[in-house]
Amino acid sequence: MNPANFQAIMTPLYSEIKTSAPRRRERWGVFVGLLVIAAAALDSRPALAEFKVCNQTLSLYNVAIGTEKEGTFQTEGWWTLSANECVSPITEDLSSRYVYVFATNIYGDDAFNGEITMCLDRHKHFEITGTDNCWLRGHEAARFKEVDTHSSNSWTIFIQETRD
Questions:
Q1: Do 135 and 76 belong to one domain?
Q2: Contact 77, 53 (CB under 8 A)
Q3: How far is residue 111's CA from residue 119's CA, in Å, rounded to a whole number?
Q4: What is the pTM of this model?
Q5: What's the maximum distance between 2 C-alpha atoms anywhere in the chain?
Q6: What is the per-residue pLDDT across 152-164, written as a single tens digit (0 to 9) for each?
Q7: Where does 22-135 have alpha helices with state H?
Q8: Using CA atoms, how far apart are residues 69 and 94, in angstroms rounded to an integer?
Q9: For the chain, how many structural domains are there in total?
Q10: How many helices (H) and strands (E) does the chain have?
Q11: Element of type H or E holding 100
Q12: Residue 143: partners with Cβ closer than 8 Å, 6 or more residues away
């Protein structure tokens, strides 16, 4: 409901309440109730759905993600992630329980010990469908970390300094 419609509805109600003194208390309750409903309608924002990666280190990281869509695995990259910043590679409801993440810093050190082999291209932005025969298709095989989002709409994973 836009503010003009809200005013068009509420002005006659307020005028009626104001002029009818005997029923003022009863109608005042109706007015307040309608006002609360209208205010809620004006502020009804959808919940933010996303998959976010946050870098809690002092290093610069490049991030790639893998997802499963309609039974096929897809990988995409790169998102550059500065120190102490976050990036949202997925900005919609998570359609799968699992998201796969690969992150490497500018020295070539991987942020995660991945378990799932997927394809990527270290030299340019990429979108790759499928996980088989990476080398034969001109891509590199890399080990992505499987992140269980527990079927949540939103999830955040953190890159942290490793303690030796």
A1: yes
A2: no
A3: 17
A4: 0.70
A5: 85
A6: 999 999 999 876 5
A7: 24-42
A8: 10
A9: 2
A10: 2, 9
A11: strand 98-105
A12: 102, 110, 113, 114, 115, 116, 117
